[in-house]
């Protein structure tokens, strides 16, 4: 496998979806999600809430308040979990929005989001050390009992961004839970941008936004997991991390993008590298 | 003007173009450029080289060698300069390519590129200092005798990337010419990504790629122009630079994007800022 192909295959895998498999879901004339035929059929149970046409599904205009919309969606999600259409509830709340979290029309259970093809938001943190041998990254290995990507490699800290928490607040919480990073140290993490991708899954569609952070750590800091999500941490040379990304599928899929972005921003992947522009642009798909 | 609007208006201005005003130009079934009606009409003078249909213009398949294509294009460009269709020649060579510089079909005079709507490539360098008061940026003011954007603010070092020079080589050259940055110091600049935009101009279209670099400078380094392109340098707080970008048109248009990208990567513009995602994504238009 060529060097560029090693990176690009993850970007392509993250952006693999077919618009023909979905019907757009609108609220107030804004497209907030996309539905597979199975979900369109399931939502037909509530003709007072969804008007279904060949090209789109409209969530009724009669509910104009955010809380009422949220309540109506919760009742639907609960019914669909009971019917086995949606696998389970997660407990965390995600926004229902056409753009940023601040423009949410409602909130919905996190697990339900991909069934409706709603935008999802997460925070991923690169914990790194500047050593005499260059930059090293702290890499996590996910616990083997995780539902998603058990045993795979992961960014030092990464988690979903629920609607109820601010960026700094959620990042601190995740930093503590996943790697025992003290609050003050977590606050020194630098937000460095956002990556976007859109991926079709068995259950639906995930148009995802990853807010990325760099946290430079003291050489004597050793991350320790406190919530059971991580089974080990490794301090790796960038060369080694890059090799794993290029040659293997050891990382949880979207974490590859976060590592590639880190390598680009720190000059480890440079403009002369094969397909550099395609890699850079591939990290910023339009949602 | 709202904060986000101050940034977004430059991004929108850089990406303002109407596909209906152009006919695509193909070589070997790859779209390499876009032509305004005036250029389509001008190229009809060479029916053996261009086949013109309603939807596209094809550069003849009979010329299969890069040097032959380059020679044929040079003859055309010279004729069009004589006819006054193209304003003048520049001397620097730009690639004719559908993707990266490494896949060029031919080269062409730099001034001719936008007339054909060809991709252009540049390198922009943020020279910065970490001081006790936070990050400061070195900002250039363009000489008042420049043809383009005279007297406007500019990144510390910025220049076109001719096909004949490698990334490092051209960056060193520009660093020396524009700011008297010694070779060794210039080599420590870190490539941090690439920005893309596409803008319609009076003469044609500019689908542009800006390779960006960060160069941390010693506090006692003072840039000095050596080639007459810059009339002054200022060391400014990021807050001041941000205010100028938001509230004025003092910067050469595309330099605003490079400054905004710097602010995002260094956490000066953070995820909670209004329209953060639109700003981040707007720096990476698909070309």
What topology emerges from the helices and strands here?
The structure is a homodimer of 287-residue chains.
Chain A: H1 3-14, E1 23-27, E2 30-35, H2 37-43, E3 50-52, E4 57-59, H3 66-82, E5 93-96, E6 106-109, H4 113-116, E7 120-131, E8 134-142, E9 153-155, E10 157-160, H5 167-179, H6 183-187, E11 190-200, E12 205-216, E13 230-237, H7 238-247, H8 253-265, H9 276-282
Parallel strand pairs in A: 1-4, 7-12
Antiparallel strand pairs in A: 1-2, 3-4, 5-6, 7-8, 7-10, 8-9, 8-13, 11-12
Helix pairs in contact in A: 1-8, 1-9, 7-8
Structural overview:
In chain A, 31% of the residues lie in helices and 29% in strands. Chain A has 287 residues and is of the alpha+beta class. In chain A, a hairpin with a 4-residue loop joins strand 3 and strand 4. Chain A contains 9 helices and 13 strands. The longest helix of chain A is centred in the N-terminal third of the chain and has 17 residues. In chain A, helix 1 packs parallel to helix 9. In chain A, the strands form 3 sheets. In chain A, strands 7, 8, 9, 10, 11, 12 and 13 form a 7-stranded mixed beta sheet that branches. A 4-stranded mixed beta sheet of chain A has the order 2-1-4-3. In chain A, strands 5-6 form a two-stranded antiparallel sheet. The first copy, chain A, has 2 domains: 176 residues, Nucleoside Triphosphate Pyrophosphohydrolase (Alpha-Beta Complex); 94 residues, Transcription Regulator spoIIAA (2-Layer Sandwich).
């Amino acid at each position: 496998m060529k060097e560029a192909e090693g990176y690009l295959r993850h970007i392509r895998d993250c952006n693999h979806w077919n618009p023909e498999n979905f019907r757009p879901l609108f609220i107030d004339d804004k497209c907030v999600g996309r539905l597979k035929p199975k979900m369109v059929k399931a939502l037909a149970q509530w003709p007072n809430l969804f008007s279904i046409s060949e090209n789109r599904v409209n969530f009724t205009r009669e509910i104009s308040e955010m809380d009422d919309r949220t309540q109506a969606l919760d009742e639907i999600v609960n019914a669909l979990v009971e019917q086995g259409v949606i696998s389970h509830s997660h407990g965390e709340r995600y926004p229902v929005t056409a753009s940023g979290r601040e423009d949410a029309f409602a909130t919905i259970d996190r697990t339900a989001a991909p069934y409706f093809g709603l935008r999802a938001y997460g925070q991923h943190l690169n914990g790194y050390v500047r050593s005499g041998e260059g930059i090293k990254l702290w890499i996590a290995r996910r616990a083997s009992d995780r539902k998603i990507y058990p045993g795979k490699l992961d960014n030092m800290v990464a988690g979903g961004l629920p609607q109820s928490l601010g960026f700094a607040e959620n990042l601190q919480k995740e930093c503590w839970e996943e790697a025992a990073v003290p609050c003050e140290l977590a606050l020194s993490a630098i937000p460095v941008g956002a990556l976007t991708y859109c991926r079709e899954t068995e259950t639906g569609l995930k148009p995802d936004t990853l807010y990325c952070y760099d946290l430079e750590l003291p050489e004597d800091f050793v991350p320790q997991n406190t919530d059971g999500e991580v089974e080990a941490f490794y301090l790796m040379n960038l060369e080694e991390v890059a090799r794993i990304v290029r040659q293997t599928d050891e990382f949880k899929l979207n974490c590859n993008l976060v590592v590639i972005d880190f390598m680009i921003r720190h000059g480890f992947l440079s403009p002369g590298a094969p397909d550099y522009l395609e890699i850079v642009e591939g990290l910023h798909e339009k949602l």
